[in-house]
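User: What would this chain look like folded?
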Amino acid sequence: MRPGSGLALRVMHLAVGRRWLPAATAAILAWGTVLRCIALSYGPLHPDECLYATWALAIGKHRDLWLRSVALDKPPLYPYLLALWAQVGGYGPTSLRLLGLAFSLLGLALLAKLAVKRFGPAASVLCLTLAALSPAAVVLDGSALTDPAAVSMSVAASAAAGSGLPLAAGLLLGLSVATKPQLLAYLPLVALAGGRPNRERTVRVLLGFAAVMLSLVAWEAIRRPEQSFLALAFAHYGGLHPASWQLAGRWAGLLSWVWGRASMGLALAVVCLFAAVLAWRRGSPIADGDWLAVGAGLSLLLYIGVSMGLGMPAWDRYALPAVPLCALLATWALSRLSSLLPWAWFRQVFVAMVALGLAAAMAGPAQEAAQHRLPLADTSRWQGIETIAAYVRGQVPGRATLLYQDFGWEIHYYLEGFPQDMRWFEDDAALLREVGRGSPCYLLLPADDTGRAQVAMVRGAGYDLHPCVVGYGQNGQPTMALWLVERASG
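Assistant: Here's the prediction, encoded as structure tokens.
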């Protein structure tokens, strides 16, 4: 060894001691928080966000506490959470999205806690980096969709199971499923987060889960709807469908946004396979971290397999449940590889350098996601709805009729409480039947070929259409227009 090299190693040893871990954890959390705050401030609410917000308004303003008057095709927990949250922050778009942000930050903290317990403090920074800088998570965590809350509850269930609280884990998993049923796929992770399978622990998890499901049944019995939300969900989303190669390709493309780069996802998948082969060939005892990885892998396969088996479309929000699972798997694999290295401090150096490299690789896609420059959570079609709502509030008489075909859920949210008669028309024939009934009558149409064709059709039927206000997207292009309809003179 060259003179001075021992001193250099000692200095490096001190530099990568555990003192860096709290600072690194705080820095990654702060970075992820800033990115999510940038993302949530962009654009109007997505139609599904508007739908949940409308249900929350019905609950919070005591107009329909049991949601009997709506076609509820989703579990009921999230609208109640949203209504409760709005009692503090109001029903504005930013306030509603802050609920998703709060859940996501809690989920990140609990994911780091689980990684600390199963893989060690240094590896937890790696896991947190993968989850906090995921482009899919950055753009979707700050939303009023059900996914951030449901995923965070599932992560909380896994963390509770890892901390020896199986009953709490079952309750949290039940709450997650009562928010988004697909999150039942997290059951293997919750079952194995506590280590080697244990009958007593599994029974406690199932008891907690059953308690929530029974509460859900009781709520539905009190509500007594014409059709249960389960029946409506099956009617709207259908049953089993054979998965096609085309659908598989779309899901593969969707999952590439977990990391932002398909090449990075493939590289981490290879690392996971290599670590699994290495663990099998070495024949070492199965540690608690290994059981956690098995649970994460099974949950990921179950989630993707069931989603494809049900023929579910590869919508961007469906990538979010895969983020914590992929982060745990990659962390386990890299921790396994680091165990081949000598000296504990040197293993910390390796993990720290890998985390730094991954952060550098993911920084670009994460920033693009925050600025909505990726094809994720695109709400550009609905930009301008606030302009339309402001015009209707200030310029359109309360006795007026407003006809619309698109923008239905947005109308119900952004024009909630307005006195005008909002009427939906199904097709062109229905439009021509409705257009002459109101006085004055307004028509909200998209600023595209379909909207222009409908304007020409109404004019051809003997009406004059006068443009009132146009909504524009952030790219400066028109997205929608409000027209005043009058019977043609002469």
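The chain has a mean pLDDT of 89. If you want, I can go into more detail on any region.
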